[in-house]
C-alpha cells in the first residue's frame, strides 16, 4: 500500500471543522452569563470527545495536511468574521488580540522547544523585553513604530544571546534551570530599576503609523469600530507572518536539522551537523518572534509592569505548547485560544486559573501525551505527489 | 598503493581500562575489512575514535592522506567517512525520507534565506534528493521506497538497519563503517541484509567498508581480510580462514590457556 499514491484528502472536513470552531468561539465570546458559559464549555468538551470517538479528527487532520494553504486563507476569513461580529466590543477584541500575540510568542517558543529541544522557561521575560522596548522607544524617541516592533524582537534576541553560552554547555534539564534563573533575575531587575519605572512599570504610547493613531476609535461610513480593530489587524498580520516562517522553517532542511539534533545529538554530529550553530539559530529566531509579539503587546496594553512578565507567565507559555501539541503550529494556536479565552470568560474560576492550567496539562500528559493536535510527520510541500 | 585509512599506535583509555592499546590498522581502498574480537576488545571504541566521538589519547589516524586524529565528527563526515551504530540510532518519529536525508547534510543547502524564502529553489533541491533517496532505498527494499514519508517508528529491525545504512550511504562516502549490522536480527534477515550490502558495493566499486560483526558466517562471506582485536591490540591480520585457524585468536575467543 503506497501512501504517496493515496488520493488527496477532501477539503470539506477541514473547512467544516473550521466553521464549527469559529461559530463556537464567537458564541463563547458573546455569552456573558456564567451558567451559560459553563454549559457552553461542557458542550464543547463533550462535542470534542464525541468527535474523537467517532474518529472525525483523522479526516480533519488529513484535510488540513493536504489543503493547508486553502484552509489557512479560510482561517484568516474566520478571524475577520470574529472581528466583524465584535467590531465595537473593546473587551472581546483585546482578548482576541491577546490570544493572537500569545500565539506568535508560543510559535517562537515552539521553534526552541518543539524543534530544537531547548527548553525556555523565560518566554514571558522575552515577551516583556519586547514590551519594555516599545515603552522606552515610543516614550523617548521618534523611531517609527513598525521599526520599534522589529527592534523589540532584536533586543529580545540579543539579550537572549546572553543565555547562549550556558544553554549550549548544558543539556536538557540543566539548560532549563538556566532559563528559570534568568526569568527570576529579569523580574527582580525590573523591580529595582527606577529608569524602567520600578515595580510600578511604565506607560506605553499607542501605535501610530504614518499619522494614523491606533488609539482613536474609527468611523467607517457611519459604523463605529473599536480602536482595538487597528491592533487586531496588525496582530493578525504578525501571526500570519510568524506562522508562515515557522511552517517553512519546519519544512526545510533546517527543520530537519533541528529535529535530528533534538532526537540524537551524537548521531547528528556524526552526519556533519553543527549542533551549536543550529541551537543558536533556533534560540535567536524563537526569541525574536517572542520579542516582536511582546513589543506589540506593550503598545496594545499601553502599560508595562514587572508583574506581567513573571516566571508563572512563562510557565503558561510552556503549558500551551504541551497542551496544543509540541511542534504543531495549528495545535498551538488552538491551545493558546483555550488558555487565554476560557479563564477570562469564566470569571468564577479566575483565581483558580493556575489550578485549571495544571489540571489541563496533567490530563493531556496522561491521556494524550502528544497534545491535543499531535504533530504529523513532516511533508515538505503539502499535497505534494511524486 | 597507499592506504585509505591508517591508524598507528592508536590508544584510548577509560579510567583504568585500555580500550585501545597502541592499535595499528590499515585499510586499502576498495577493501572490505572485517573487524572482529571478543566483547570489549575495542572494536566499537575504534569506530568512535575514528569518527570523532571520542578523542584519542595517543597515536594517529590518517584518512585519504590527511591527519584526522583530533578532527571533529563534522570534519570527519565531510572528509568522507560515515557509519552505522551498534544500537540502531534512527530518529524514530521522523519519516524514512527524513532519516536518510540527515545523512546527506553536506550536500544540502543550509542557508537560512534559501530554506525560508527561496521555496522554488528549495523544491527543486528537495525533488532531486527525493529521487536519489528513493533510488537508494529501492536497492535495499522496493517496498520501503513506496513508504518514504512514513515514520521509521513502525518498522521492523531489518528495515531500520537498511535505512541506517542508506543514511550512511546517501552522501557517497569513501569509507563506510558498519557496527554490527546483524545485531537484533534473525539469521535469514542477516543474510538478506548482507546481500544488500554486497549489491551496493557491486554498484559502487570505490567504496571501502570496515565491518564489525560477531556472526562469523557474515565475516567469512563478505570480507576480503580480517583483523582480530583483543584488549585493544591487534592479535591477527589476514584472510578469514587464516585468521580463524590462528591459535591466538582461538584462545582469545574460547579462553584456551
**Proportion of strand residues of chain A:** under 5%
Overall mean pLDDT of chain B: 88
The proportion of residues in beta strands of chain B is 15-25%
Our count of domains of chain A comes out at 1
Rg result of chain B:
19 Å
CATH 2nd-level architecture of the largest domain in chain B: 3-Layer(aba) Sandwich
Description:
The complex is a heterodimer of chains A (386) and B (257). With 386 residues, chain A is mainly α. Chain A has a single domain (86-367), classed as ABC transporter involved in vitamin B12 uptake, BtuC. Helix content of chain A is 69%, strand content 4%. Chain A has helices spanning 12-30, 34-53, 56-66, 68-85, 90-115, 123-140, 145-160, 164-169, 173-192, 228-250, 253-263, 265-270, 275-301, 311-324, 329-345, 353-367; strands at 202-203, 208-209, 212-213, 218-220, 223-225, 303-304. Chain A starts with 11 loop residues before the first helix and ends in a 19-residue tail after the last helix. The model of chain A is unreliable at 1-5 (pLDDT under 50). With 257 residues, chain B is an alpha/beta fold. Chain B folds into two domains: 1-80 and 173-257, Rossmann fold, CATH 3.40.50; 83-171, P-loop containing nucleotide triphosphate hydrolases (Rossmann fold). Chain B contains eleven helices and ten strands. Chain B has helices spanning 43-50, 73-79, 96-102, 112-117, 119-140, 142-145, 157-169, 187-203, 216-222, 240-244, 247-254, and strands spanning 5-14, 17-27, 32-36, 58-63, 66-67, 81-83, 175-179, 208-212, 225-230, 233-238. In chain B, the strands form two sheets. Chain B has a six-stranded mixed sheet with strand order 6-7-8-3-9-10, with helices on both faces. A four-stranded antiparallel sheet of chain B has the order 2-1-4-5, covered by helices on one side. In chain B, β4 (58-63) and β5 form a beta hairpin. In chain B, α5 (119-140) packs across α7 (157-169). Chain B starts with a strand and ends with a helix. Classes of the chains: A mainly alpha (386), B alpha/beta (257).
